[in-house]
Amino acid sequence: MAFKTEYQLTESFLLKVNQLLDSYIEYGLHTQSEVRAPGGIPDYVIYRSIGNSIHYLIAIEFKLKNWHRALEQAFRYRNFANEAYVILDKETSNSAKENIVLFKKANVGLITYDTSDSIEVLNFPIPSTPFSDEFSREVASEIISTNIRTTDDLPFIRTARGGYKLSRLRQLELLA
Amino acid sequence: MKIYHQHGHNFVWNLDSYTEDGSGNGHILSPVNIESDKIPLRLSEDIRKVSFFDPQFYLPHDAAKKLQTYTFFPKNVLNNFSTSDFIEQAYDIAQSCLVFQKELNFQYSIIPTRYFSELPENALEQLTSIFLDPFISEHSRITDAPPLLLTVIVKSIQLEDELLRSELITWITNYPELRGVYLIFDNDFYSKQIKDPEYLSNQLLFIHYLRQNGLEVHVGYTNTEGYLLSIADPTSVTVGAYENLRSFGIQRLETRESGTQQGPTPRIYSSKLFQWIPNTSLPPMRRLIPDWQGLFDESPYSEYLLNPSSSLNFNRKEIYKHYFFIFSRQAKELPADLQTRTSFVVEKIKTVLENFERISNHNVFLDSNSDGSHLTSWMNAISIYNSEIV
């Protein structure tokens, strides 16, 4: 059965993600919805921070339909994220699956989810540093509500290795 | 093909671009954005001589913003807006409006028009009685008045429907007093670029027919497609700063309550892509495409625009002055001979399509408002147009 609204898909999926994240809370994992960012508002970000310093950032876009628009948005999130994902309702994801090569080219993750709690990961992106230092600083300032100067160190901009703990998210399918 | 600056908010950028960079050939003034007494102060006579004044009677009952300062604007003259009241005053309005344009030494005398959201059956009759007849008559009584241009708003239906199109062309070409037309295409496409090849080819044909009848054709509110339209030999197309000056919309001429709106994503025009590229696409281009700078043009503003540390927002004048500079240069490069020009434009489009392919091959994703999808429509429009005029 398909999700009726994007909100339903989002809330349901995040419940699942949060179960996983809760067990790693001591590693400084945080989440935030609807983060204002240059070129779009990711539905959800997951990040690891120590003090005021962000060490890794994942941006997520949920969509009931129009997977191509979701892919375009998620690709833009790579300006400030180490990984970007599109999460679709499994019922309406066939066209996206047929075009999985585009997700691979864009290095954007693709996950489908359905009302029976089934999660399917079709593409995991390769962690990378964000495309833009400037946009990353803007987003980091938005998340931690502190103005970040160009001289401040932001580990997630200079290395994609900070995602070690978040790599546990790749166990998502095991939760299903 | 000449380039006129379509004035609107912050028209000083257009004036600076013209005087400092030599961009464009003249200006189309927008009275909703400038008080009547400020015109001679802000625009020198030299500039006025190569420019024209759009009276903007589109919504005659709404003297929005600075239109209040024009004594001949219908709202400032009429007590009510019945057709009979309008007709009664039409000759006085025409006389004052024409004298105003003549005294300021503009290049043309513009006959205004009004905007119809839905085209009434008697639209042309109405326009004849309240604008065309009075302006032509009063124009003949003014010594040395600049030549007449008739403002014509072309609705999509008038392009698509052969009968309506023919009726409109017949109406326009029926008046030997007219030097030409100030043409405004009114459409409601959702995309930033026009991607309908039928619509584009109909625009080309419409311009072509008017030119065949010996009329000057000045096309207002054009975006990048102004380059494509060049193959139908319009006298001029326009460059405008904000998006509402590159596509006609009545909203900017309405009285509205001001509210806060989030500004659009800043975009940089590239003649190598015939497209406005959002600044959010620059970081992946920088990272993934070797020699990415080659996809953009050099101008006095390009260094600032392409510098990642520039805090670009859609209100930066550099964005628009860059566009005026580059698009004017593109227009100057067009061959004079129309057949050669068409082949030249086709070759340019092919090169641009190759550039988009290169972008895609480097795994940079552009959204449908920033990619090259409009260019296949341009190619199709050219084919349709060529098959119709041969």
What does this structure look like?
Chain A has one domain (6-175): Trna Endonuclease, Chain: A, domain 1. Helices cover 34% and strands 23% of the residues of chain A. Chain A has helices at residues 6-22, 67-77, 94-98, 100-106, 133-144, 155-158, 172-175, and strands at 29-33, 44-50, 53-63, 83-89, 109-113, 119-123. Chain A has a six-stranded mixed sheet with strand order 1-2-3-4-5-6, sandwiched between helices. Chain A starts with 5 loop residues before the first helix and ends with a helix. In chain A, 44% of the residues are buried. Chain B has a four-stranded parallel sheet with strand order 3-2-1-8. Chain B has a four-stranded parallel sheet with strand order 4-5-6-7. Chain B has a two-stranded antiparallel sheet with strand order 9-10. In chain B, helix 1 crosses helix 13 (317-333), helix 9 (197-212) packs across helix 15 and helix 14 runs antiparallel to helix 15 (373-389). Chains A and B meet through helix 2 and helix 5 of A and helix 11 of B.
Features:
heterodimer; A: 176 residues; alpha/beta; Trna Endonuclease, Chain: A, domain 1; six-stranded mixed sheet; 6 strands; 34% helix; B: 390 residues; TIM Barrel; 2 domains; four-stranded parallel sheet; 15 helices
Short description, anyone?
The complex is a heterodimer of chains A (176) and B (390). Chain A has 176 residues and is an alpha/beta fold.
List the SSEs and their pairings.
The complex is a heterodimer of chains A (176) and B (390).
Chain A: H1 6-22, E1 29-33, E2 44-50, E3 53-63, H2 67-77, E4 83-89, H3 94-98, H4 100-106, E5 109-113, E6 119-123, H5 133-144, H6 155-158, H7 172-175
Parallel strand pairs in A: 3-4, 4-5
Antiparallel strand pairs in A: 1-2, 2-3, 5-6
Chain B: E1 2-6, H1 12-21, E2 26-29, H2 39-42, H3 45-48, E3 52-53, H4 74-77, H5 83-103, E4 109-111, H6 123-140, E5 148-155, H7 156-160, H8 162-173, E6 178-186, H9 197-212, E7 216-219, H10 225-229, E8 236-240, E9 267-270, E10 275-278, H11 282-288, H12 302-306, H13 317-333, H14 338-361, H15 373-389
Parallel strand pairs in B: 1-2, 1-8, 2-3, 4-5, 5-6, 6-7
Antiparallel strand pairs in B: 9-10
Helix pairs in contact in B: 1-13, 5-6, 9-15, 14-15
